Amino acid sequence: MQKILIIAFFLLFINAVFSFDFIQVDTESQLFVDQYGRSRIFRGVNAVYKEAPYYPPITTHFHPNVSLCEEDARNLKNWGMNIVRLLVSWEGVEPTRGYYNMTYINKLKEIVAMLAKHDIYVILDFHQDLFSKRTCGNGFPTWLNEDDDGFPFPLPYKLRRDGNNFPLREDCVKHAFFQYYFAKQVNEHFQRLFDHKFSEYFMSFWELVVKEFKHFENIFGYEIVNEPWVGDIYKNPALLLSKRGDMENLNPFYKKVVPAIRKHDPDRIILYEPSTVSMAHKEVGVEPPEGKENNHKQCFSYHVYCGVVDDKGDPRWKWLCEKIDDISFSWRQKDSERIGGGRFLTEFGASSDSKKAVEQLHFIMDASDKYFLSTAYWQFKHYNDPTTQASAGTQGFYDHQGRLQVEKVQVLSRAYARAICGKPRLMRYENGNLVLVYESKDCKGQPTEIYVNEEMNYPNGYDVKVEPHIVRVVREKNLIKVYNDDFKGMVSVQVIKK
Questions:
Q1: Quick one: 392 and 444 in the same domain?
Q2: 301 and 403: one domain?
Q3: Which helix (H) or strand (E) is 203 found in, with range?
Q4: Residue 459 lies in a domain
Q5: Are residues 125 and 83 in the same domain?
Q6: 343 and 215, same structural domain?
Q7: Of 413, 434, 456, which residue is a domain's last?
């Protein structure tokens, strides 16, 4: 009880001292907007620790592979990151049916509050891969699927078991984890989630989570489920056809789950993903769970990965990965225009800081700037990820010796406009130089804000040129503020590297 009271007091303190803008979606531009009418762009990282304790286990001091602490949050803020996609694990919340682990929930609250102190928003992401530990995955509690002795049938792999009859992780990672989605057991479990009482249990999970976290001002929104599978392709092979799984299974499932979230938080953004199958096609089949009339608080979430990569996650052929990523952006942009609401690139990257990987990251960030996309890199640290074949120190910000992968971070912390007082027309970055063009509006005295990483990307400084000259510019550490005042019209801002 004493700890609960301390956390409640801390929550009141955080919300009183650190005020966050309330974010929704402008349905015309499909950009995020704050209460002042400014268009908002978010840049951040995933922080997903998939194994127990289901949060980064070191929160009191820095560790290059497993911490999420004050030092990490300060670094993220200094690198221009203003959002973290944070795992909220169902197996962490409800390890046995009907028992809710408030110790785990309170630990997540401490992390959310700590991030708030550093002006960082949070997406609460129910993150799953391959359903649960019983099927070489994570996310769903193991009490949902206790009949997996035949896993991974019909795949020909022999997997040893631990004392809990779970497949050994060291055997699981000998094969590309995506292959396990074709195991009959994984297909059956997802279909039960869509068709049976599993969905009611899932609704109870989300209802509790939202009830516990709705008071945090830095909660950006709730992501229903990461990378959902289409259902049972052995009973219904047609689910593998483009939009079929989204339309038959995901859309009804999302519509069922959303009221559980809205019971305690009617206004924050709900993020929803298409199935992993439809994301490989030209058009996805997901629709806004609350209908297009509520698109001001809904967001289409998707991922972009090349797929043709080596064991470090780096492109095997730069030209091919650029082509694949370009097609992916084009397809998902058309999807988002058809669906409406917000759009968020919640995963990309998962690569090292090699020359070709850094070039690929620039390509993705260029596309994100083109579409004014918010992004979250996968992922901040290795976090002992059990569903990756990459070694610690490749995909995160730090290498296996604990050194910062500077060239990667330089790309991810490049200059961008995080708040735009008007309708953005152009944002383009090249070799440290940024061009921003927008049609100004009245934002109740609030400025356009451009982040610049002075230490990493502008060691010799930078110049700022604006047109028209009546627009005011105020420079702060790592930040350029542009005040339109009473001017209405096109504003151009150039950040020029010295």
A1: no
A2: yes
A3: helix 198-213
A4: yes
A5: yes
A6: yes
A7: 413
pTM, 2 dp: 0.95
From CA 324, how far away is CA 52, in angstroms rounded?
Answer: 35
DSSP letter at 160 equals -
Strands, sheet with 448-451, edge to edge from the N-terminal-most edge strand: 24-26, 31-33, 39-40, 416-420, 448-451, 479-483, 472-476
- Classify strands 416-420 and 39-40 as parallel, antiparallel or unpaired: antiparallel
- Inter-residue contact 258 to 219 (CB < 8 Å): no
Note whether residue 182 is domain-resident.
Answer: yes
- Distance (Å, rounded) from C-alpha 396 to C-alpha 389? 13
Q: Are residues 151 and 78 both part of a single domain?
A: yes
* Residue 471, in any domain of the structure: yes
**How does pLDDT run along the chain (498 residues), one tens digit per residue?**
444 444 444 444 444 455 799 999 999 999 999 999 999 999 999 999 999 999 999 999 999 999 999 999 999 999 999 999 999 999 999 999 999 999 999 999 999 999 999 999 999 999 999 999 999 999 999 999 877 778 999 999 999 999 999 999 999 999 988 999 999 999 999 999 999 889 999 999 999 999 999 999 999 999 999 999 999 999 999 999 889 999 999 999 999 999 999 999 999 999 999 999 999 999 999 999 999 999 999 999 999 999 899 888 899 999 999 999 999 999 999 999 999 999 999 999 999 999 999 999 999 999 999 999 999 999 999 999 988 766 667 899 999 899 999 999 999 999 999 999 999 999 999 999 999 999 999 999 999 999 999 999 999 999 999 999 989 999 999 999 999 988 999 999 999 999
Structure-block tokens of residue 293 = 């009339």
CATH of the domain at 408: 3.20.20.80
Domain count, the chain: 2
| Structural domain containing residue 436 | 424-497
